[in-house]
Amino acid sequence: MKIVGDKVYLIDSFRIPGVFSTYLLDFEKKVLVEPCVASGAEIILDYLSKLKISRLDHIAVTHVHIDHGGGAATIAKKTGAKILVHPKGAKHIANPEKLWQASKEVLGELAEIYGKPESIEEDKLIPVEDGQIFDLIDDEMVAIHAPGHAPHMVAYYLKRRKILFPSDSIGMLVKGRVFPLTPPPFDFEKAIETLEKFEKMEIEKVALTHFGTAPKDCIREVKERLKLWFEVAREANSIEELDSKLRKADPDIELIEKGSLFHSFYLTSIRGLLPARKK
Asked: Are 141 and 134 in contact (CB under 8 A)?
């Protein structure tokens, strides 16, 4: 576990280290941001047990993709937490069967590694509105609707500590570089609007899910890279062609190790760019 800020901790929450960041806000009102995959729930619960934390007030789900919201129900049942989630995604947390079937089609064997999310009663969910504030006593946490990567994306922001938890609305951090995450059905214009919204905020630290923390400058970096990738995608007609053109236009892509989970995230991203360019 790593210290991110005052009473804010990063839990490495997957069996492969350095892929999924879950964040514990160890305040008077305790919050877990990004419960991540179902198969990582026991890792998170074990950390909480070592800290003698048996109860959580909230679990903040950024979006319902199974590598982000998959562990929410399991952890909520063990800790009594209410789950914060975008109104569009709430039904998939309550009953993830349809999401699970779709995830298996898209992710294949990787879905089984992530694990099937548990279901949970709807009264355990709190649909969050854009700008909604949660008083955690030690700080205030603001929910920010952040579409682009997904229409049901919520970022969370600690007002006093000036820490942003943007999940995939910013991207993934690989060897000091931040790369966009643009899976289908990606919305380029909304993604840029979200990044520009973040740029106007007072942010001292960006707490990413994949993986770790970065300075605010990462927002500008990923916005420029996303614009470049989108322009390159306009000239490509296949995944293979887009991959080749992107590698020529953006040599930093070589930092993403082939065969790694980060490389699978990249491949999913370029699959989302091709249809997005036609919108």
From this structure: yes
- The residue type of 225 is R
Residue 31, SS3 per DSSP: strand
Taking the alpha carbons at both ends of the chain, their separation in whole angstroms is 42
pLDDT in tens, 186-215: 999 999 999 999 999 999 999 999 999 999
- Token pair for residue 187? 């919305």
What 171-174 contacts at long range (C-beta under 8 Å, 24+ apart), as own/partner pairs, is 171/208, 171/210, 171/218, 171/222, 171/225, 171/226, 172/208, 172/210, 172/211, 172/262, 172/265, 173/208, 173/210, 173/211, 173/212, 173/214, 173/218, 174/255, 174/256, 174/262
Domains: count for the chain: 1
Concatenated DSSP letters of 130-179: TT-EEE-SS-EEEEEE--SS-TT-EEEEETTTTEEE-GGGT-EEETTEEE
Residues in the chain: 279
Asked if residue 71 has pLDDT above 70, the reply is: yes
**Three-state secondary structure readout of 253-267:** HHHCCCCCHHHHHHH
Residue for token digits 């605010």?
Answer: 216
Domain range for 179 is 2-276
Identify the CA nearest to 25 among candidates 46, 4, 40, 39: 4
**Is 219:195 a contact under the CB 8 Å cutoff?**
yes
Q: Can you tell me the distance from the alpha carbon of 3 to that of 5, in angstroms, rounded to the nearest whole number?
A: 6
CB 274 within 8 A of CB 233: yes
Give the CATH number of the domain where residue 29 resides.
Answer: 3.60.15.10
